[in-house]
Amino acid sequence: MKIVVSATGPSLDAEVDPRFGRCQYFVVVDTDTMQFEALENESIAAGGGAGIAAAQAVASTGADVVLTGNCGPNAYQTLSAADIQVVSGVSGTVRDAVEGFVSGKFGVSSQPSVEAHFGTGSGMEPGMRGGTGRGMGMGRGMGMGRGMGMGRGMGRGMGMGRGMGPGTAPMPQNPEDEIETLKEYTETLKQQLEDIQRRIDELQGKDK
User: Global pTM?
Assistant: First the structure.
């Protein structure tokens, strides 16, 4: 099976990028051998249609499954049309994500996890560079940081990396744009809270 993971770097040890269309890299992994190929996402700076372009690029790799943090409707539809299964809400390293999927940890998503234009608001810095994840560490980092900037994330890493706290770009001045940005961010936080609760349940189950 061939799995494509949205990633922050070109390796199996890179963190899963929470965005699909505007992730930094796509890591293509052969689950039989764990051999991989890393492709730069040429759509990361696209003015529009990044999700569709990214999905088309992934489809050209012959992928069977996509693992990512969040997937918008346009990308989801394009991937589904190419018979590629989408799994959202994935975190940790690329290696962890692939091994988790193979072991049945993640279920296939039946719909997009965020609305269109996720991650394009001016209040969210692209990639992992804008994060303000400094502060409470749990394992490899809870990374709640200042403001609303999520750090490297829960357990093995649920990197948001797009700070909305001090030192980042201002929120959109237009109320409608700001509402849209906050809605998108809320969806991401909901997904992360679900992942955190799932991890808590797993740990509590091990203690019993």
Answer: 0.55
